[in-house]
């Protein structure tokens, strides 16, 4: 088996940063009224700026595939050119199409050469699953290199226009024309962007990160769905797919909106995160002292203290000086968030050879968790 190194990392964040008070200028107002949830959600999540692939008129400026391709182009120079890439592995929870897959659309944007392509679907863990596919390919010698990416373009899913038909339907039914909190909540949580890494079987340049191991854990066998789109949740906790609804209800019930069961989120996201983190650390005999930086993907600063306390109670307390986050500045970019954190850390000048980094990514969709342990070389 080969060693696998992250030798390059690049990002692409579209347009100018968007401040909290500007969000409704981009996303619009549902029923021409300011959201009652917006201020509460923003106060808890701690995000101050984020990026949208939109103009202020709500016109898209980039597709998800274009965002990803722009990040990947940042990996290329005279030493590593597009023709040198052997594998492309991309993860996202907001592909531009149901089909073709996201990664083949990115490949089409790059237009570089014939190569293997892999698409990882899902939610936040999709970016880590894309990374693991590339890691395993290089490790077993199937390819000498792999480009792996995580990205999102959620802004176009959150435009007010997508919800107005439901509001009109509620008015016709003489019901309160207010969009449910499980939909409105996520309009103030999610943002756009992409980042990519180059994996190779040998270290290159002044700074490389060796991937020691990667692990994943799913709790779907015991927990119901928490975050979903293209479906609606029934009283028994199951979700009904969009294809089983009459097409007119796709609009009148905002079936394709991203929704989250916030009660389930609050009850399980930290508990299962602590449980899976301890499983990964115990399996590989890693202690808190073996971690110099932890990069936890959190959707909201609301969860940070609870996660820290949970680790401490489980005997895996990682002191706060080791925590590295950039949620406040770039927002929650789902499958791209851990890549964006790692890019900022690698560019910070803080890393020293021999240090160890833990990547932690939770996914609330049906409670999945992914981890990677890296050594600075």
TrEMBL record:
Keywords tagged on the record: Acyltransferase, Transferase
Domain of life: Bacteria
Pfam families: ACP_syn_III_C
Keyword Acyltransferase assigned: yes
A GO biological process held by the record: secondary metabolite biosynthetic process
Domain annotation Beta-ketoacyl-[acyl-carrier-protein] synthase III C-terminal: ranges: 281-360
PANTHER family in UniProt: 3-OXOACYL-[ACYL-CARRIER-PROTEIN] SYNTHASE 3, BETA-KETOACYL-[ACYL-CARRIER-PROTEIN] SYNTHASE III
Protein name: 3-oxoacyl-[acyl-carrier-protein] synthase-3
Lineage: Bacteria, Pseudomonadati, Bacteroidota, Sphingobacteriia, Sphingobacteriales
């Amino acid at each position: 088996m080969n060693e696998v190194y992250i030798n390059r990392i690049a990002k692409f964040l579209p347009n100018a940063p968007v401040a909290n008070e500007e969000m409704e200028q981009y996303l619009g107002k549902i029923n021409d009224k300011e959201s009652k949830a917006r201020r509460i959600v923003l106060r808890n999540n701690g995000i101050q700026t984020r990026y949208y692939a939109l103009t202020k008129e709500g016109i898209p400026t980039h597709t998800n595939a274009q965002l990803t391709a722009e990040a990947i182009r940042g990996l290329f120079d005279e030493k590593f050119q597009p023709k040198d890439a052997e594998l492309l592995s991309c993860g996202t929870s907001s592909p531009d199409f149901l089909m073709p897959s996201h990664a083949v659309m990115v490949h089409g944007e790059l237009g570089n050469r014939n190569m293997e392509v892999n698409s990882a679907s899902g939610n936040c863990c999709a970016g880590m699953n894309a990374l693991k596919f590339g890691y395993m390919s290089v490790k077993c010698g199937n390819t000498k290199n792999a480009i792996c990416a995580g990205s999102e373009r959620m802004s176009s899913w959150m435009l007010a226009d997508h919800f107005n038909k439901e509001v009109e339907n509620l008015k016709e039914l003489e019901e309160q024309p207010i969009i449910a909190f499980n939909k409105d909540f996520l309009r103030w949580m999610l943002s756009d962007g992409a980042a990519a890494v180059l994996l190779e079987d040998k270290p290159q340049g002044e700074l490389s990160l060796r991937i020691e191991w990667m692990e994943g854990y799913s709790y779907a066998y015991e927990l119901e769905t928490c975050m979903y789109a293209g479906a609606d949740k029934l009283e028994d906790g199951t979700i009904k797919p969009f294809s089983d609804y009459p097409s007119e209800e796709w609009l009148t019930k905002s079936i394709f909106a991203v929704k989250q069961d916030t009660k389930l989120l609050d009850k399980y996201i930290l508990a299962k995160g602590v449980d899976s983190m301890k499983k990964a650390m115990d399996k590989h005999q890693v202690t808190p002292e073996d971690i110099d930086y932890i990069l936890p993907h959190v959707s909201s600063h609301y969860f940070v203290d609870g996660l820290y306390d949970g680790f401490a109670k489980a005997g895996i307390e990682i002191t706060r000086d080791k925590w590295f986050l950039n949620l406040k500045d770039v927002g929650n970019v789902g499958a791209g968030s851990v890549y964006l954190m790692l890019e900022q850390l690698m560019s910070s000048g803080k890393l020293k050879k021999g240090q160890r980094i833990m990547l932690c990514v939770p996914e609330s969709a049906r409670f999945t968790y992914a981890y990677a342990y890296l050594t600075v070389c």
